[in-house]
Design a protein that fits this description.
- Helix 1 packs across helix 6 and helix 3 (91-103) packs across helix 4 (114-120).
- With 186 residues, the chain is α/β, with parallel strands linked by helices.
- It contains six helices and twelve strands.
- The protein has helices at 19-31, 82-87, 91-103, 114-120, 135-140, 165-185, and strands at residues 8-12, 17-18, 35-40, 45-50, 53-59, 62-63, 74-77, 107-110, 127-128, 144-145, 150-153, 156-159.
- The protein has a seven-stranded mixed beta sheet, with helices on both faces. Strands 2-4-5 form a three-stranded mixed beta sheet. A two-stranded parallel sheet has the order 9-10.
- The protein has a single domain (4-185), classed as Rossmann fold.
């Protein structure tokens, strides 16, 4: 079985991402030894939303157009209201998520990020959770919404909100380890 240090994880976000929902998964994944790259729509940096105002900026490693799905073991989608709303109208971002979902590798979305899963058409018939205010959107898209801190349905991992970040990050790492075990057994 591969160690955590063999994992490479992409976090896809743009301006307005919920600060804790990008920073904390990045921190926990890197602490576990994973290499984490930030993907966005444009090069440079993206700015977080931190409660009631703009927060810190994060450097973008690659644009979605430059990123190669095969180079990543997992994809993490942070929430916030602005971030997924801006990403879901970008064809390249939505196609990247759709194509990544088709790989069967861990795909993790928290808070409002399930909007991206809806837009990519990968939520129908899947058990998921999200921030409570978009539960109707999830259900209308065919998602089987649950009010739990984290829901894992195969390679799809979803979580509700910043208070659930430890459970979310643990589920991502568990899924990466399981995926690694499947690959090394093949």
């Amino acid at each position: 079985m591969a160690t955590s240090s063999n994992f490479k994880v992409a976090i896809l976000a743009t301006d307005g991402f919920e600060k804790s929902e990008l920073i904390e998964p990045k921190r926990q994944l890197e602490k576990a030894g994973a290499e984490v790259e930030i993907l966005s729509l444009q090069a440079g940096s993206i700015k977080s939303w931190d409660e009631k105002d703009w927060g810190e900026a994060v450097r973008v490693d690659l644009t979605v157009a430059e990123a190669d799905i095969d180079g990543y073991d997992a994809l993490v989608l942070p929430g916030g209201q602005m971030n997924p709303d801006l990403l879901r109208v970008d064809d390249a971002a939505v196609q990247f998520i759709r194509d990544f979902a088709a790989t069967g590798k861990p795909l993790a979305a928290i808070c409002h990020a399930p909007w991206l899963l809806i837009e990519a058409g990968v939520i129908n018939g899947r058990k998921v959770t999200s921030y409570h205010s978009i539960s109707t959107d999830v259900k209308n898209a065919g998602g089987l919404w649950q009010d739990d801190s984290v829901v894992v349905d195969g390679s799809l991992i979803t979580s509700r909100q910043p208070d659930d970040l430890d459970d979310f990050c643990r589920a991502i790492l568990d899924s990466l380890r399981k995926q690694s075990g499947k690959q090394s057994a093949a």
